[in-house]
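ok, trying the design again with the full structure, not the truncated one.
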């Protein structure tokens, strides 16, 4: 073991010991939610759930943008891909997510033009090279991703690339946090706040948590120690009854965020009500083109759509709002696997079900063993 690895393990062990001592002060149970898909995978990969005291629980929330995208958006994307005059460009995560009747992966296999790109600017380049066709970029994401889409739109507008369009599926992070707390469906004592989104929004953005919702929050990085220190902060504040938000990622996240990126968002988009998978319609939680940029909106292209149909038995929506953990879905690790995904939470690289399936094998095996013991003893053990 190298000296840096040994030092990190020691820091993690100390953080865990402090957490255990804090939690031992009370029998009360605490639930802290992470709302970032990268945090979800980091937590699962490091086995942090198994390191926490029994009365401290981490709950995965709606932090995966692909997962929260409603199925009607995917239905429209598939319908656009079937138009012979359209090229659909998308990030890779969205390709395998099932729509009501198909997926972009299947449409590509059927001969329709679906291309995986690494940025919205790649789609602008494709539009410039194929002026005879409309190029539709699937603009799914939170405040982290959308400034890059706005920058690509700026480029297309400046250069007169009129056939570059965006199907906007953007979400904003504040309204779902409010909705989760106000619904009372899941008992929440604080939030681990997303590092990437916070780079854009800034640490001061989250003042509403402490001022209006009376909950603590911690902006943290993506290493195990970062996350444990965030949980320690949330537990300390909860025990003290002091709802504060701390920026524990100060080398990356500034108080005011990224003004240039925020100005780009403000120029191109306005807030609208938006549907979220699992959470329903949340007021002012999405972004749409401002009226003066309606000519860039791919939603204006005519397509035929049937009523949306969710995959039968899939409980991805309940996973996204923290109501259940992935193994509680009857499809998880049975008919729904990374090789043959049924729901978006298993497809996306940031999805909670994908994280559990890939990294939480010990927890899954322990849970199954417990169920088998329960069945063998008739519930007496």
């Amino acid at each position: 073991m190298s000296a840096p690895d040994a030092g990190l393990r020691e820091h993690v062990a100390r953080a865990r010991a402090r957490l255990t001592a804090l939690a031992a002060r009370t029998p009360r149970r605490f639930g802290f939610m992470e709302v970032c898909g990268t945090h979800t995978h980091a937590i699962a990969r490091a086995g942090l759930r198994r390191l926490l005291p029994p009365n401290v629980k981490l709950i995965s929330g709606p932090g995966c943008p692909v997962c929260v995208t409603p199925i009607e958006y995917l239905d429209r994307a598939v319908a656009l891909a079937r138009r012979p005059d359209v090229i659909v460009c998308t990030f890779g995560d969205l390709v395998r997510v099932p729509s009501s009747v198909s997926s972009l992966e299947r449409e590509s296999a059927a001969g329709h033009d679906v291309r995986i790109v690494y940025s919205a600017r790649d789609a602008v380049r494709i539009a410039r090279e194929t002026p005879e066709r409309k190029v539709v970029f699937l603009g799914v994401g939170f405040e982290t991703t959308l400034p890059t889409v706005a920058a690509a739109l700026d480029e297309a507008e400046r250069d007169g690339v009129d056939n570059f369009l965006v199907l906007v599926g953007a979400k904003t992070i504040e309204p779902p946090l409010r909705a989760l707390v106000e619904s009372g469906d899941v008992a929440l004592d604080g939030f681990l706040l997303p590092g990437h989104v916070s780079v854009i929004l800034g640490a001061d953005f989250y003042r509403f948590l402490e001022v209006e919702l009376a909950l603590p929050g911690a902006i943290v990085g993506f290493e195990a120690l970062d996350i444990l220190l965030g949980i320690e902060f949330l537990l300390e504040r909860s025990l003290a009854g002091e709802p504060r938000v701390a920026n524990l990622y100060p080398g990356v996240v500034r108080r005011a965020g990224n003004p240039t990126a925020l100005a780009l968002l403000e120029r191109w988009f306005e807030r609208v009500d938006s549907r979220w998978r699992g959470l329903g319609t949340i007021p002012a939680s999405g972004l749409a083109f401002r009226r003066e940029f309606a000519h860039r909106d791919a939603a204006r292209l005519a397509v035929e759509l049937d009523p949306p149909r969710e995959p039968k038995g899939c409980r991805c929506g309940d996973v996204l709002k923290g109501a259940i953990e992935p193994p509680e879905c009857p499809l998880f690790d049975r008919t729904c696997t990374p090789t043959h995904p049924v729901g978006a939470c298993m497809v996306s690289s940031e999805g909670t079900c994908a994280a559990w399936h890939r990294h939480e094998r010990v927890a899954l095996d322990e849970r199954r063993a417990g169920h088998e013991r329960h069945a063998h003893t008739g519930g007496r053990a």
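Keeping the full-length input from now on. The CA atoms of residues 161 and 341 lie 37 Å apart.
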